Amino acid sequence: MCFEGKPVALNDTHTSINPPHGLCLEKVGNGSYLNMVAHPDGSNRAFFSNQMGKVWLATIPDEGSGGQLELDVSSPFVDLTDQVYFDTQFGMMGMAFHPNFANNGRFFASFNCDKDKWSGCNGVCSCNSNVNCDPSKLGTDNGAQPCQYQTVIAEYTANGTASQPSSTSAKSTEVRRIFTMGLPFTSQHGGQILFGPNDGYLYFMMGDGGGSGDPYNFAQNKKSLLGKIMRLDINNIPSASEISKLGLWGSYSIPKDNPFSEDKDLQPEIWALGLRNPWRCSFDSERPSYFFCADVGEDLYEEVDLITKGGNYGWRVYEGPYLFTPTESPGGNTSLNSINPIPPILGYNHSEVNKNEGSASITGGYVYRSMTDPCMYGRYLYGDLYAGAIWAAIEEPENSGNFTTSKIPFSCAHDSPIQCDSVPGSSLPALGYIYSFGGDNKKDVYILASTGVCRVVRPSRCSYTCSLEKATTTPPSPSPSHASCWSNLSGYLFLHLSSFLLLLISFM
User: Fold this and answer.
1) Own/partner pairs for 37-42, CB < 8 Å, 24+ apart?
2) Positive/negative CA dihedral, 7, 273, 196, 262
3) What does the alpha-carbon distance between residue 239 and residue 2 come to, in Å, rounded to a whole number?
4) Cα gap 156→170, rounded to integer Å
5) The pTM is what?
6) I want to staple 276 with a disulfide (CB 3.0 to 4.6 A). Which of 158, 225, 315, 397 is the partner?
7) pLDDT tens-digit profile of 442-461?
8) What angle do CA 379, 385, 391 make, to 5 degrees?
């Protein structure tokens, strides 16, 4: 395995191989969010954003304090709803704060726009002659013209001067357009952005653009930015003439060590390719060369990939470990022998998690690095949108790149600051739909669900046994209404369909 062209750096932190007895949660907020980003100043604050385009700055209570997220719904940090096109499949997909945000106030939003409704929605169509695609032959998709909807990364600034950014609010006026690209279809457009912890570059996760089976084979097309992870330098901005000369999609420059330096066929923005719809990626905070991305499958398989420089993850030649046969191929095919795909490190068949609905959609998470639950330490947590399932994966043997995973039972602490609802007719705690995961500056992990925000807490608060936990208080007795549960919540989930879920349904 390699990352940034160098051997993966591993450590020898010991993690117990036996799976933890369970995941204990406390509910600290009622809001429904797609994104959570810890404040770069290292404080106990974090930013939360919803699909419509509002961002809030919240203060996070200490674990076990009985406190809730301190967040004023009526006073967002910034309101971008005038720029964001919000519909069942579109909205604000990601946000990222410059590593030096505390000093320069720079932050970035990734969202969708409608060129029929906003003059700022003016990107080049991703279906063009350079990628063997003619937009006039695409037809409409859910009533939309090809590239009517676009993906945008825009830069904003906190109020005040760059040397004294405001800590509580920001201007909704765009400072700089980093990226704009028209989308061929109305689904599978990813949109997460995050800064690399070591290199300071902006990583942009882009889906294959939609359509059944990626009909134009964008994910394997090295000239297309669809179905890719991009790596952009937003600290060195070229002039307008240079942007035009280089054929860039916005105001960024290309890191010199991007894979195009070794593969001249690749567009220079590309870091990795062969992805269908990456939904939530993260760097391991203690091993930043480990870059995990969950990739939503088509018909059969959900996967987690370990992203490396120039890596090809197989879609649409493969769907996970299975060969994929597209129903139509107006954009041509990629031969099996022409690529060397990297297999997923983790995954599951759709039939394993949701036999009733026959569907699944993976939600990527984080490597757990908090000592709040020491028995979870070093495990990669991830979930499934529809089934409410949560897994914890561990690399074994250490330093091998081989991962094993276990589905983890979860409970809600009976002393949770906000009472957890139960599945009707059951003792199961109701997470609803798992949209995303988040993390704070203490490295605690959060679940962003349709029913609210939950934090992973000490196992003893749910009467789970963890021999590594140093309990300072008597563990509470379990509440009958919040007993341990396994993940099959499918019958209940469809009763709690929300407008936010419709966004993620489209990812299928």
Assistant:
1) 37/95, 37/96, 37/97, 37/438, 38/438, 38/439, 38/440, 38/441, 39/97, 39/101, 39/441, 40/97, 40/98, 40/99, 40/100, 40/101, 40/102, 41/101, 41/102, 41/167, 42/441
2) positive
3) 33
4) 8
5) 0.90
6) 315
7) 999 999 999 999 999 999 99
8) 20
